[in-house]
């Protein structure tokens, strides 16, 4: 716990130096340093683990927005207004007809920019989890209209049905 608080007060270059100091340390030690640095949005996994891990570099704002989600983020979606969202390719494939199969995509470290705004992508990703669905009646009418179009576009049938109920 003290390590996390201490690292949050450091500048990016200092955290990178700490990462190189821990290069010979155990995976557990590097993970604690990495999580603190990632949480602060300063460094990537690649700088701590040059040989790589099966996780894309993610900054704090790119973390999964679904509460209690334990799946590793393996893709970053970027809204047209620039907000980044951590997502899971398997969930996108399972809950949306229009996203490609996990096996047909070559992983890379680039963000995937979508045409939708941040509010719409946030809802789409929340409806792409096996979790409690957000109450669409609490969203603005413009947001629900944009979301129903995205749900239809990406083939998220559960989201589309929820939008239809909310718009009645």
Can you describe what's shown?
By secondary structure, the chain is mainly alpha-helical. The chain has two domains: 2-48, no CATH class; 60-166, 2-Layer Sandwich (Potassium Channel Kv1.1, Chain A). It contains eight helices and three strands. A three-stranded mixed beta sheet has the order 2-1-3. Strand 1 (75-78) and strand 2 form a beta hairpin. Helix 6 (118-126) packs across helix 7 (141-154) and helix 7 packs antiparallel against helix 8. The N and C termini lie far apart (48 Å). Residues 1-43 and 52-61 have low confidence and may be disordered.
List keywords for this structure.
8 helices; mainly alpha; three-stranded mixed β-sheet; Potassium Channel Kv1.1, Chain A; single chain; 168 residues
CATH superfamily of the largest domain, called what?
Potassium Channel Kv1.1, Chain A
Helix count, DSSP H or I runs of 4 or more residues: 8
- How much helical structure, as a percent, in the residues? 40-55%
**What is the total number of structural domains?**
2
Give the low-confidence spans. 1-43, 52-61
């Amino acid at each position: 716990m003290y390590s996390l608080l201490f690292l949050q007060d450091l500048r990016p270059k200092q955290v990178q130096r700490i990462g190189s100091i821990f290069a010979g340390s155990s995976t557990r030690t590097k993970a604690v340093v990495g999580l603190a640095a990632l949480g602060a949005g300063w460094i990537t996994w690649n700088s701590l683990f040059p040989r790589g891990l099966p996780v894309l570099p993610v900054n704090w704002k790119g973390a999964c927005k679904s509460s209690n989600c334990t799946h590793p983020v393996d893709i970053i979606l970027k809204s047209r207004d620039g907000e980044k969202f951590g997502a899971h390719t398997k969930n996108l494939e399972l809950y949306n007809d229009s996203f490609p199969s996990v096996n047909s995509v070559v992983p890379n470290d680039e963000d995937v920019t979508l045409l939708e705004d941040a509010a719409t992508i946030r809802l789409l990703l929340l409806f792409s989890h096996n979790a409690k669905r957000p109450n669409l009646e609490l969203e603005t009418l413009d947001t629900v209209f944009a979301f129903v179009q995205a749900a239809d576009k990406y083939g998220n049938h559960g989201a589309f049905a929820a939008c239809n109920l909310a718009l009645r």
